Amino acid sequence: MRSLLQTTTDATGGSPLVVTLVLLGLLLTASLSLAVAYVVVRGYRRNRNRGRLYLAVGLILLTTGPILIQFVLTTFTAVSPVGRAAAANASKLLGLGAMLYAIYGVTRPREATPPNEADDSNRVRR
To answer: How many domains does the chain have?
Structure first.
């Protein structure tokens, strides 16, 4: 029976099995992040609440962004480990900033509030 993994492959980070499991875990993390962001964007389309849009962007930048940045820069460029870490951390910081803006910075439309029953200023005095 043939092995699914090549045992003669040089893998950085350990055995080919460990490297494969780590890559599958990263792929699963990125996929779940994109799935959650998709659900949040659907909610944005339904309600047109900009906070949800910023939340989705923040989630992608916080989870999927660093994974893709690390993978692309490691595989296709000669960027140093410090440069890769700086780029991934910048993505995380932007994602956290977008999420904080979604929570605290986005202004929500004001709803009409019923007059306060305890406020006597609107009563007609007889």
So the answer is: 1
